[in-house]
Amino acid sequence: xxxxxxxxxxxxxxxxxxxxxxxxxxxxxxxxxxxxxxxxxxxxxxxxxxxxxxxxxxxxxxxxxxxxxxxxxxxxxxxxxxxxxxxxxxxxxxxxxxxxxxxxxxxxxxxxxxxxxxxxxxxxxxxxxxxxxxxxxxxxxxxxxxxxxxxxxxxxxxxxxxxxxxxxxxxxxxxxxxxxxxxxxxxxxxxxxxxxxxxxxxxxxxxxxxxxxxxxxxxxxxxxxxxxxxxxxxxxxxxxxxxxxxxxxxxxxxxxxxxxxxxxxxxxxxxxxxxxxxxxxxxxxxxxxxxxxxxxxxxxxxxxxxxxxxxxxxxxxxxxxxxxxxxxxxxxxxxxxxxxxxxxxxxxxxxxxxxxxxxxxxxxxxxxxxxxxxxxxxxxxxxxxx
Length: 386
Fold this sequence. Notes:
Layout: H1 6-21, H2 24-62, E1 74-75, H3 78-97, H4 99-130, E2 139-140, E3 146-147, H5 149-168, H6 171-188, E4 189-190, H7 194-219, H8 223-229, H9 235-242, E5 260-264, E6 272-276, H10 278-304, H11 314-317, H12 320-337, H13 342-364, H14 367-371
């Protein structure tokens, strides 16, 4: 800039960079995404333990040998991992081409899924709240099934929050519903091995790179950003207009669907940081798999140890989950220090996670076990020749 000393220009650039790094919206995005991944991973671990406890109780009552019961959890196999990016591409293209015709369907389906997912997120809190005054018995609702009082309460609260979101369209409620979707997906969907994890994340890497960087050359628009930021017509407002109703229902705003998390900046009220749910869920599935393997490995070591094992060193306390979490942290550092190219660094995230995890398990000698079937319990023979 002419007339301005070079020292002042450098000082101004450093100030802008510091404000960018400390921007509250980016800090909020980072903290919330880490918390969602950690909470969802440990929630999945607790669900597995609950399923094992139920099988043990069933074995005691019936005498039948316990079998692996996944409960409500879904395990992604190799075929599903290979075709998931293709299915996601087809869904994204349909939403881009036919959004105006199907936006009512998209809004209603999203509201239903968000209600169930947010009820899942609220369930532990509701269980803690009504534990003193509830026996835990399930109440029958006919063909709908049997539910505990905590499950009914969490569903009612979730339904109430979704109704407020539909009437107001507030970004904070949209974020809350998006958080519920993230936690539910991480906790209820499982990756069985590192091979499936690598196949899934590499496919999604190609999916993201194509739809973010190259879709504009074919469709004259960034398909990913267009679908993520496009608001849908409010179903309540449309029904109110058809029924000639007035008031709040008729003036219901357009809905920004909870396929992303947005956080406003305290430095600039018009600036929002946006992070797609896929950039939380997909790395979260890998970190959840790693946490489950850490717990499995610890349980196997505990069963094989004879006597009192020596206390673990600081190096041994660092698990694969910690290493993978560091990879996710590094990606957010890259996006923070260079926000102009944050889309590119979101793709680099998959390489960082898989590469760092593979290097770590290779040094520990667990790569072959994690690559194929890491959770198969090796049964020891009952009669051993001495």
